[in-house]
Amino acid sequence: MERPHPGLPELQARRLSAAPVEEEDGFEIVPVVAIESPCTNVCRIGADRLCEGCRRTVAEIAGWTAGSPEWRARVLADLARRKPGG
Q: Which Pfam families match (predicted)?
């Protein structure tokens, strides 16, 4: 199993959350925030252990929605150097 990326924030500590609104029937409505993703829907992990489509590691893909905006920006900035021949 791949070791998590050292920059990957703790899921609970960094989770972006808005205050849930409780409805009378007991369900909570939590606002959803759109998150930019480099995913290209070519989801195959290559021999270099990076996704062949977006060039992220498995840990980065798994932690993408829970990661802080700053962490995601660092990963996005690093993707250009990961491109084959880049």
A: DUF1289
